[in-house]
From TrEMBL:
Domain of life, source organism: Bacteria
Region (Disordered): 261-280
Organism: Phytohabitans rumicis
Pfam families tied to this protein: Methyltransf_19 (PF04672)
This protein's name: S-adenosyl methyltransferase
Matching InterPro entries: SAM-dependent_MTases_sf, SAM_dep_MeTrfase_SAV2177_type
Signal sequence range: none
Length: 280
């Protein structure tokens, strides 16, 4: 990626998981340090680019499902660098008027998101860290521009796609989701995809983890039980916690159709029960 006017002061010396993900998907918004780290990870696990494409396909299905269920506000934390089939594109296609706030720790990801959204008044992008959820909540509630995008007093579709495995400390990860959950309005949704211990060989997983330990966002896998715990306080939507390709698959999605466990990631959607309709 060439530097250009408006490029933020990114850390060019240390690989970024967001920019590595962009490389896996065939994007061009990455630096040499990101490509080098990504190639090391691919050497350990050649399927990584396909895993990322499968996760991206899951995200598209989830957003489409949520928009059809009536979601009109989407908060995507750990959104990464824009690519084909972005959340706002899918949501606004299904539900014109849907509003989307992208949040990412990587300034390059945020810069490119803002460039993409220049002519879209219903979407915005900000820097933020999933590990500091209260800071994000406070910012949304104190910034009139952001509050016009996301009104936390109304149902929100919270998306945490392939981000929580970059918060390896359990107390920090579960605590972050709990803070977000406690501020969401009744009727809100939570969508999570997460690398699963059960989806990787021990040697491969250890090799990839060593690569990511040298990036800005070291990570770690969790078990099915550990991933399910993120949905405490939510009612799981069918089919529950499943391999990503098993979550409401469509014929147009070819990734791991016959062997969904090879996708390496479990995924699910939950909902905070909406208020019961008042009876007369």
């Amino acid at each position: 990626m060439e530097t250009s006017d408006g490029l933020l002061d990114a850390d060019h010396q240390k690989a970024s998981s967001a920019r590595m993900y962009d490389f896996y998907l065939g994007g061009t918004h990455n630096f040499a340090v990101d490509r080098a780290a990504a190639e090391l990870a691919i050497a350990q696990m050649p399927l990584i680019p396909t895993l990322c494409k499968a996760n991206r396909a899951w995200l598209g299905r989830v957003v489409r499902f949520l928009a059809r269920q009536g979601a009109t506000q989407f908060l995507d934390i750990g959104s990464g660098i824009p690519t084909m089939g972005n959340v706002h594109e899918i949501a606004q296609q299904v539900a014109p008027g849907a509003r989307v706030l992208y949040v990412d720790i990587d300034p390059v990801a945020v810069m490119h998101s803002r460039q993409m959204l220049t002519d879209n008044p219903l979407a915005a992008a900000v820097e933020g860290d999933v590990r500091r959820p209260q800071e994000l909540i406070d910012r949304i509630e104190s910034d009139p521009g952001l509050k016009a995008i996301i009104d936390l007093d109304r149902p929100v579709a919270l998306i945490l796609a392939a981000v929580l495995h970059f918060v390896p400390d359990d107390d920090e990860a579960y605590g972050a989701v709990e803070v977000l959950r406690d501020r969401l309005a009744p009727g809100s949704w939570l969508a999570i995809s997460h690398g699963a211990v059960e989806g990787f060989g021990a040697v491969q997983a250890a090799g990839v983890q060593q690569v990511y330990e040298k990036t800005r966002t070291p990570g770690g896998l969790r078990t099915r039980e550990g991933i399910t715990r993120f949905f405490d306080g939510f009612d799981l939507v069918q089919p529950g916690i499943v391999w990503g390709p098993e979550w409401r698959p469509t014929p147009s999605d070819p990734h791991f159709f016959d062997h969904p466990e090879k996708s390496g990631g479990l995924a699910g959607v939950g909902r905070i029960p909406p208020p019961q309709a008042q009876t007369t």
